[in-house]
Amino acid sequence: xxxxxxxxxxxxxxxxxxxxxxxxxxxxxxxxxxxxxxxxxxxxxxxxxxxxxxxxxxxxxxxxxxxxxxxxxxxxxxxxxxxxxxxxxxxxxxxxxxxxxxxxxxxxxxxxxxxxxxxxxxxxxxxxxxxxxxxxxxxxxxxxxxxxxxxxxxxxxxxx
Length: 160
Known about the structure:
globular; alpha+beta
């Protein structure tokens, strides 16, 4: 499968993005049982993401197959880290979302989308790109580590 990445076209891509959100929720629900699977989560989370993209001067990238079908997306934002981080490294790119449809996984689509986000961040003069993933998402972690990411902070959860 060959593919290319492009910037999002809204509102045309909105329904596809909702399906990506639901696909991500379904994938992650096998790892953590706190994921919503109701159809409304697509609408609600897409609204939040679009607000974040506007507020944080972000960008949405879409990967398309040769046939023009959307097979993945990435959302990247410009954010500030906490004041205890040295000022020159505080502002950074934040990879908020990354999803690739099952049929396209393992073919470099995710890496290409990450590359588009990295290029965007470099173009904005940002010193680094930060992302988070579920600790149990070993496939994503392997992709990120192979791509040069390293663990930066660890979030712990304790059920009460």
